[in-house]
Design brief:
The structure holds two protein chains of two kinds. Chain A contains five helices and four strands; from the N terminus they run E-H-E-H-H-E-H-E-H. Chain A is of the alpha/beta class. By secondary structure, chain B is of the alpha+beta class. The chains are: A alpha/beta, B alpha+beta. Chains A and B meet through helix 1 and helix 5 of A and helix 1 of B.
Chain lengths: ~130, ~80
């Protein structure tokens, strides 16, 4: 993604691309909100979106990366597929956010608002601020 | 006209703000300019890549710093 700090124009230390952002992209509104929030965080220079399904498939390159760098896990619902995906390869994410725990109800349609995405982005930002 | 620059204060966001101010000055046009730096608010504007430019509540650009000439067109259309 070509976010805030990734072009050839003058850059700064406005974010950290060392953080890996892994999100649910499941078949519900909350899965899509999780994915869109991760895309937005990437676009704001707050981390790099990373392929959770590659980790789920336990492909060696993907597993190695998440074991090396701090991870943010964004799950759509309490099933916690992203968290479990990371735990299966021995990784505890620096931050874990669950969309349904932010007062957003899960349903089968994909429609959601920009404010839903903002709410998840805010939760991740707040949680990251509390991490050492 | 209300112009909002969306970005946490990085070099590109500041460059966008400067170009907007230069463009407005050359157009001899007044505007209420706000630099929104709280990234928890960015998505609510419809901005998903920074820097972002919102003119009178509408997303005019995101993820790039438009040239001054491009900005003049965008700002002219916002009147």
């Amino acid at each position: 993604m070509a976010g805030c700090c990734s072009s050839n124009e003058p850059t700064c230390a406005c974010g950290t691309k060392d953080i890996l952002l892994l999100a649910c992209s499941g078949g519900s509104n909350v899965g899509q909100i999780a994915n869109d929030a991760a895309k937005a965080l990437d676009g704001y220079g707050q981390g790099s979106m990373y392929c959770a399904i590659g980790v789920g498939a336990q492909l060696p390159g993907f597993v190695k990366d998440v074991q090396k760098k701090p991870c943010v896990a964004i799950d759509g619902c309490g099933t916690g597929c992203v968290l479990k995906t990371l735990e299966n390869v021995g990784v505890k994410p620096a931050v874990h956010v669950v969309v349904t725990e932010l007062g957003i109800k899960k349903h089968g349609a994909f429609d959601h608002t920009n404010d839903d995405i903002a709410k998840v982005v805010g939760a991740v930002v707040d949680a990251l601020a509390k991490t050492p | 006209m209300k112009v909002q620059i969306i970005g946490i204060g990085c070099a590109r966001c500041n460059e966008l703000e400067k170009r907007v101010m230069d463009a407005l000055a050359e157009m001899n046009t007044a505007a209420d300019i706000e630099h929104v730096t709280d990234l928890k608010r960015f998505a609510s504007f419809g901005i998903f890549m920074t820097p972002g430019l919102v003119i009178d509540g509408k997303v005019a650009a995101q993820g790039k710093v438009p040239s001054k000439d491009e900005l003049k067109k965008l700002l002219g259309g916002g009147r």
